Batch of 4 targets.
Target 1
Amino acid sequence: MARRKIGSRIVTANVQEKNAIEVRGLSKSFRLPTEKAWGLKQAIFNRLRGVKGYRDQKVLTGINFNVKRGEFLGIVGRNGSGKSTLLKILSGIYYPEKGTVTVNGNLVPFIELGVGFNPELTGRQNVYLNGALLGFSNKEMDAMYEDIWKFAELEQFQDQKLKNYSSGMQVRLAFSIAIRAKGDILVLDEVLAVGDAAFQQKCNDYFASLKGNQTVILVTHSMENVRKFCDRAIMIESGKIVCEGEPEKVAKEYLKLFE
Amino acid sequence: MSGIPNFFYRNNRILLKELTRTDFRLRYQGSVLGYLWALLRPLMLFAILYIVFAKLLKMGGDIPHYPVYLLTGTTLWSFFTECTSQGIQAMVQRGELIRKISFPKYIVVVSTTFTALINLAINLVVIVIFALLNGVMPSLSWLLVPLSIFELYCLSLGIAFLLGAINVKYRDIASIWEVVIQALFYAVPIIYPVSMVASASQLAAKVILLNPIAQVIQDVRHNLVTVETMTSWNYLGHPALAIIPILLVGVVLVVGARYFHRQSRFFAEEV
């Protein structure tokens, strides 16, 4: 197996640093299998026939940007433009292939709500599991346990298995846990896109409370949210930053894509 | 990067604890007897083997406390298979998690092996009760048993790391391992005594005792059940030979952990 080239992701505890995140020359591509069958048999065949068995799909090319401390940054772009990949690299889920990512402080990602939720466990058990994934000990969870259920308005379902919850209820519970997370930098992906009107309102209140006192990166398709919350925005198209600056300007550019 | 590790170490501990607990809960979810299965499964395997091999085929020979001797072997074997099979599958089963948050991947593997360790601990209590009922005298050598279990755990963990990392990409590994486990079962003296092999071929008996799994099982039997057990130490003759199984465990663990560590950054994309 050939060694792959790798960029670097550096995490420091330096929360005084002016930039919370610095991204320099970041590139990333994925290996997509060209054959339908994917496994040991195919790998051996490919080696014998001397074919690679995969092609490289470039997802991000030469991305540069900073996130200033305390800034609310929006990232917008079409489906498949590379936003989520960028977020996953910032969060340390994917490794950078080229370039460097420097994260100054503790970064808490919400790529999706309710990560690790298991339908076979009760609401109570899922709360503790999800809390552990956010870095909360049992004791810390005990302290905020009541508040989580009160905020989700689901107190009477605590000991039901999660598979008996509606999807809306699950999201409410997940969101209620997620907002307890404390980090120097929050990374949010589309979490606003779910729930009914009342729940949306709660989300908006939460985001409004973050603005100004927290470094946030928000990936969204809602230009309304970009205008309302973001101090600055960047737009990604085909793996490159094509527009950067005032939320108003970026929102206009984004809408032009669909004209 | 000083300053950060403290925070992360704490988080890793929390995560490991919670994942182990979840794993343990989920394994017996929806079954009437629940956690009791952790106890019943090895006991039932033992019952079958005891009836077939001890009663029908009369394999026990003149080994004292043969039922305890057999139970010790089957329990340790169950631990080894549980640890490795679950460990190898762990990364794939927790793929959802790996694709969505960033954390040290070894935690996933270690948490499943912890579940197996808890099961083993419960079963050891049963063995001790069984041994006392069967008239085995408690002795100081019992204190050496945890050392042997630690060795078996290191081996299982090494295998789980190595094969688990390959299994992320080539899912065939899990199926292949099932077959290997079947074959290994007969290569390890669990149902037959080593003395039976030795009477046919001394060389074969020596080769068998070079296997770390065999070495551990025989050591535990020697220290827990009866000193009349043939072990790597008293049969291979030379200390330099007897140390080979332990060296093998060390090699498997180091190679496995290093390979796993090197591959782990690709898991989120490949799983």
Target 2
Amino acid sequence: MTPTQALPNPLPRPEGELEALEEVWKRPRGWRFVTVVNNNWIGVLYLGTAGLFCVFAVILSLLMRAQLTVGGNDILEAGTYNQVFTVHGTAMMFLFAVPAVEALGVYLLPAMLAARDLPFPRLSAYAFWAYAIGGFFFFLSLFWGVAPDGGWFMYPPLTGKEYSPGINADFWLLGIGFIEISAIAGAIEIIVGVLRNRPPGMTLGRMPIFAWAMLVFAVMIVFAFPAVILATILLELERAFDWPFFLSARGGDPLLWQHLFWFFGHPEVYIIFLPAAGAVSMIVPAMAGTRLVGYGLVATALVATGFLSFGLWVHHMYATGIPSLSLAFFSAASFAVAVPTGVQVFAWIATLASGRPRMEVPMLFVIGFLFIFVLGGLTGVMVAVVPFDWQAHDTYFIVAHLHYVLIGGMVFPLLAGLYYWAPLASGGGLRYGRWVFWLLFGGVNLTFFPMHVAGLMGMPRRVWTYPEGMGLELWNILSTIGAGVSALGIVLLIADLAKNFRMSSGGTDSNPHKAGSLEWLPQGNYNTRSIPLITSRDPLWDQPGLAAQVEAGQHFLPGTVSGRRETLVTSAVDAAPQYIAIVPGPGWAHVIAAVGTAGFFLALTVQWVMISAAFGAVALAAVLYWLWTGTDLGPVRGPADIGGGYTLPLYVTGRDNLGWWAVVVLMLVDGTVFGCVAFTHIFLWLSNGPESWPPSGTTLPGLMAPAISAALVAASAAVVMLSDAVLKRGGRWAVAALLLVALALLGAGMGLDLQALWEAGVRPTAHAFGASLYANQFWQLLHLGIIAVMAMYVVARIAAGLVGAVRRVSFDVVRLFWFYVVGQALAGLALTHLFPRGAGVA
Amino acid sequence: MNSQNVFDTAGPDGDRLATLAWLLFGGGLILFVAVLGFLLVALYGAARVRRTLGNPRFIVAGGIVMPVVVLTALLLHTLGLARALGLPMPGGEPPLRIEVIGHQFWWEVRYPGTLPGGGIVTANEIRIPTGRDVVLEVTASDVIHSLWIPALHGKIDMIPGLVNRRTIRADRPGAMRGQCTEFCGTQHALMAFMVVAETPPAYEAWLDRQRLPAATPPQHEMGRAVFAAAGCGGCHAVRGTEWDARIGPDLTALGGRLTIGAGTLPMNEGTIAGWIAGAQDLKPGNRMPSFANALDGPELRAVSAWLESLK
């Protein structure tokens, strides 16, 4: 960075600048509040909803504890109990844990990075509403007795059509659909936000640990969620259309589900834990009044955890009969992940040792976290030991372990964060923290510690009752008492929030903990008045007077230069200022889109196909409206002075544009799903053995048809390239015509392949071979549909005069995604036509 | 005999796993106390000690070196242990092969080669001789189940379309409980079984009794007739009669087993009658209908008495 003018700029700010800034960032009042998109408000709504869902799921756990207090109890009958434990687990993982940490990121990151907002506020708001509506219906399914009852892990064949004929399983498969969408939307937001919306001077090496943690979290979502997305698509295809992916009688394999599910499910644990660990890395230095010891080690540990967590999924499958060599590998990998976690624990201890820790409520929760989480981590090492796991697996020992890890590793840090960051959001302080802490700390240990014993005494998980005479009575009674104590703690926490939490932008003292990170700068709806130039990891400690300078508008972008909401975009590594991005304000489109999305999935669950299609059309229309009106605004004004000697444009195209980054992340998601499609082929091939893959009697189309398909698909990419060249020369209608030609080529290529496959007699229902070929077709045709919408959108923008040689972000985004779709289609053709030929002879 | 305690072992592999558990608990306790100790010192220790803990080298020592050393040692130990588990007994007889098939919500147990052209079939109880390796070949007919006999060894999943093997050996005679540990539907909780280990002569004697077809002495003719009239043979087999259906458990020697309803109730004439009359009340959602309305008291008593006599 080479600023030509020194900051802070001591000159007085022009009159009306602050008022204009406040005006554009004003929150909508009254019933229009639902249109709010600002992260300060969406973040709180998001956290509050996650908390509410957590309370619902806790109520279910109390029902289970009541049932299990004594053997042979009949408070819940077997079928109901199975619904209750399934909804409890599913809700805690999908409706509470992931959304809660995501919400914490949405709320805190802009403040911590001194950004005005996240780069795509309507995307976060959309993700929130889709999640909130879908989540409520998911719980409601319990009241109609149609809640899922196959466990949160949903193993087929139990969850297949034959053994779960009702819509309960569909509620899980489709109900989780929009949670996946909203998690991925949030991940895109967080990755782009952390990498591109940091304040000038905040290089990656100066980034707060929480931002590191959220970055790793979001990248992990990008690579983990696709596996469960594909798994749910495959199981729903099997249930709805009888495509036998998991039915061994027709070449399927139940273990395929387990691999896909745990490839998501194990990283999921770290997806939940890492943001919480990041929060602890912020709280501990503030409470100890000193820098985090081992910043580099901790940041590396977060990244290493992210990597390693993808190599552990088989440790949920030790008892499935997997060869012992692979077991040894996965056991070693499971041990290895203990190292980065150990690094963080010792870094926190070192930080506490080098400062003067204040025993305030957040600190109590951090100590409680360390106690519970370390114990859970140690039992985690135990269950990574293959022979021990054979005994502990699927018993209450695991129930104890996972609750120690998740409550210790996520809930306690979250509560530490709640009490730590509450002053940011609330005028009034919270008061009952110490009571809440002791009730929860005592209650959680009393509930879950005895479960270790019950498990080793032979109590399996997911049982609605147990016989007398196994010696389980005492331990279950203790657990139930503990659950009651924990529930009191939760009631007190709710009372504290209800009585003492008053939503407002900041209290009188902007930095009550005397912390070093930027969220403690004076805040408004627009976050900081001006965006600071950062020269250290702990700016509020190392840059004296920063708060006053920022508040006086003496740093970057102290107002609005376009009369709209803006945020500063900087480069990913060095955080050098690049451009001013206009971000959208309140609106209805994303709310309608969320209602449409939730309605689409829910109506599909109860098999109202037409209503579902109508909801889907509404959602699509709303998304298109929001893109049309809110994105690719073009250069609304010339470059503007942001202070510090920088004059930045308000519109950039190409690789610097935020939209381009979002599409790249989306391509990584889609590419990972496609990778899982390929994994499905390879896994089923190995499971069937080369001699029966493809199964005897299968005729594949000759290589002529796929060769023509490939040529057509590739030609479509070439035509898109040509349209790019024409656009550069100012062409307009020629660009539109070329895009339509390219679309026709892509459609023809994919259609020809589908037709060839069908005419060769390959059917998706006959055998898992055909099913996996058509799963590939399904995924490719879905992309054809997306490209068709995108192409028509750009053509319409061209017709409306909104795309040209300068204003071309919409075109660029579509072009980039088009190339991806073409690449994926070519890989798909190879998978369909070349893999079986190679695999058959291998 | 209802114990499913991991530490209540009855064979060499069960012993090894119990020893391993104690090793892990001991090691875990030491590490837990150490970490909490460091935390306390960091919070309340003397300034000089705290300075030492505040050094980044402490993080490397505690967070990297210590776990790498401990976990490498543990990995080597468990790899060695894993190899020792299920090793054939030196100089022993060739292992006995038993097939176990999981059904919603009961266990089919087959002894291949014990009859000409086949083998005896029983349910919800695995009889084994002591001092001899037994290979359990497990699979499932419907959904995934998991077989667990904590006294002898860890779990092995029963997966449709796949045969998994687990070698067990009991050193001491006795009955021990096992249970399904993979969630398999409504009555997963009540899918248990017994393992009965007997001395080799006692086992051979039991096997000889099992080989005999079911007998119907005159006092049980009515019971047999009720069985026929109620259509029990539509699901159950009784060897030596015309019934050979395989939907439910084989009842050829029902009365000799320790439990009824896959570990739901102890076996006697009364519980058999109770089960026939109210299977859906005792274990709602299992595949056996309740016959309380179809059979009157004398009929119920007659059929239960006959079944109880089959041993």
Target 3
Amino acid sequence: MSDGLDLLRQSLQVASHPVLDVSDITRLYGERIGCADVTFRLWSGEVLGIVGESGSGKSTLLRCLAGLDQPTAGRVLLDDHGAMVDLHNLSEPQRRALMRRALGIVHQNPRDGLRMDVSAGGNVGERLMDRGDRHYGKIRMSATEWLRRVEIDSGRIDDLPRQFSGGMQQRLQIARVLVSEPKLVFMDEPTGGLDVSVQAKLLDLLRSLVRELNIAAVIVTHDLAVARLLTDRLMVMKDGYVIEQGLTDQVLDDPQHAYTQLLTSAVLS
Amino acid sequence: MSELVRVTRVGKSFTLHNQGGVCLPVLGGVSFSVAAGECLVLHGPSGAGKSTLLRLLYGNYKCTEGKIEIHHQGRWVDIASADPRDVLDVRRQTLSYVSQFLRVIPRVSALDIVKEPLVTRGMAPDLASKRAADMLARLNIPERLWSLAPATFSGGEQQRVNIARSFISVTPVMLLDEPTASLDAQNRDVVISLIEEARKAGSALIGIFHDEHVRERASTRRIDIQSFTVAEAA
């Protein structure tokens, strides 16, 4: 009975408020629209995909959501230990601290997310030290465990990232992001630039980690197959605006908007 | 009998924006309900809209009009208008879709694929493995295949792995899209028993079966989809 109540309480807690609450985000570059009027909410355990062609505004939006860019208008609320905090209404040090605490970013190019002059183990351990962990033995153990989870041989722990293949570098970046157990993760074309066979392996890894850790994630991709495999919900962007959104399988199998129909019919599957 | 599914005046048309905006009406005025313990068969020739209706019920297609209500944890959720988040929750707990195709996930073994729904719903992994093994055996998947990823299995074997996965943890409402297509008689009979067991456990099932034998034995009621088919000239 108490088990049942605990479960119920947990599920109520999960459901009570979103991890990310975005309203009317607009980013202008002078006259030009980067993205406009984007509103959505994301709960833990949900994976949202953003698709659209290059220049549609998806990366601009992601940068605003992740605190890397300041929106011209709108609001991004992030869950910080139960309180919703306005990401763009904080002092610079406060925002940096919140970003370190609450969110993780997986960049398309692993070089943007990794320290190339620090060992693989160091790249993963550093995030734990940022968080305040000081016990060297424990940090190394944790780093080793995470390398194992992303399928990097523990014998490579002292190697530099530049000695790794592209796929390994990307997996290392994922370990570096997830080791601090963020509740919210942003990914920008996480499989871009990788061989198809390496992509499949990475997608499989991401899929199981996201489910296992009950993370909320936003994934930007132009690859509809990636969106179908990894995401629960989908937003389609064109010229800076969200033109269609809904369940991933519904948007892909019964697209309503002319542009989405064009996008889905152009894919060989 | 308690109703689990209520369909009210559902209509569906497809607008093809990139082919001159042509509008294809498929279904109109679809109304029926299904109660616990029933297996309703959608009957009609191909092209009449049976699969479309099944996809509408799952929320995979968007209704043009009408309501599709599913009884979900003590309340009614209208799949046609619900938030994606609520539809996902209904699918996790209440509503499942059984097709004849297995979505192969690279590198995941047949046993793990079959046991996943049990683990997701909180069963201990050891017990789930045991139940999954029993189910694979029941569907005549040779034991030497259990630890392998089904990517290399034959079509029929993949189909049976998918059925094992679908029926290992039956949901209150199950949509069956020709689950027995191209199965041999022995395995077809296993599926018929699985349907019957789900029904007796209180599930409401809605299915498409081309095989007359399966239709006769598995269904408790049938509706003719042609009465809802919208003629192209309309």
Target 4
Amino acid sequence: MRVFVRLLSTLLGLALAAAGVLLALEVAWQWWRPQDAPLLVPWPSWRDALEGTGWDSTTVRVVAIIVAVAGLVLLFTASAARRRDVRLTDPAPGVTVTTSPRSLARVVGQHVRAQENVTSASVTASARKIRVRATSTLESEQELRPRLAESVSGLVGDLPLVRRPKVSVVVDSPRDRR
Amino acid sequence: MSKTASVKAIARSYGAERSLTFVTGLVALLAGAAVLVLGFGWLGTFRAQRPVLDPEVVDWIHAQQPVMLRVAAIVLGLVLLVFGLWLAVRSLRPEHKPDMALDRTQGHGLTVTAAALAGAVQSDAEAVDGVTRARVRSVGDDEDPALRLHVWLREGTDLRRVWQDLDTHVLARARTALGVEKLPVAMQIELGSSERKRVR
């Protein structure tokens, strides 16, 4: 997402620059030699078309919808391009330590899979919350869940995280379906 | 609270790019919505039927000083050009890697290049037990440079011990070698990475 925002802002910058050049050129040209206008952009025909189009015409509505949706997409892209680093406590003044949510999830996943009776596990993590989904063919959710939650909390508590994320554990076991 | 140098060194700032994309998106959304509101006649059915290029607006423009309007339009165009180019260049420019100037005296200048600094700290960091890979680069501006370390740790490594080692050996050594009191550092640690295996 961050690379995409960088690309978008480059394109936006180029579009603004091009629009600025065309505006300045057309105005200056029309001022200097009115009989030879337009220079590059066929603005007189655009003007005539706009004079004949009402605000309630379908074209205007369609264009407005497209512009609004594109604006919404830009808003979402800009908001999604933030960094999701997980801060660790500073070991010394002037040193800032972070880790990625992915590696936090990897550590928790390795830990959960090493537990007894866990068949498989998937983990998603952020600085605020760690979600564990484990499957077990041998133990029911009632038995396994408290044990897993406790051991994951212990593991996370051992890491020097700035804020302790909430841990939620879901166990999927065929024993519960009988 | 302003960000400290080490917090700023975590990653390249995307503040300008993100806010600009955000503002453009907001303007587009509001403009589209406003045109739809106008077109559906919620501001009056008669107003919705008027042409987009309203004759009243055209008359008003014709009543203005033509020289003023033209100069204003040309200036606006030039401002847009400069701003757009600045934005494009800023977004495309790679992040600056500052050299570290140890002595700025005229004729006695002493500079450690960014590559030399990064290479030295990187080999020090990779020598720490438990570190599989390290990437180091200098960031920030020439006046006060900072270091960005990206460190991959082997599975099951004790994080606190590695920290201690990195701080006492690697960073302290860099500080003494460069003779600086403080050297802001941002460390990104990847936990539990397995060593890359080559398929034969």
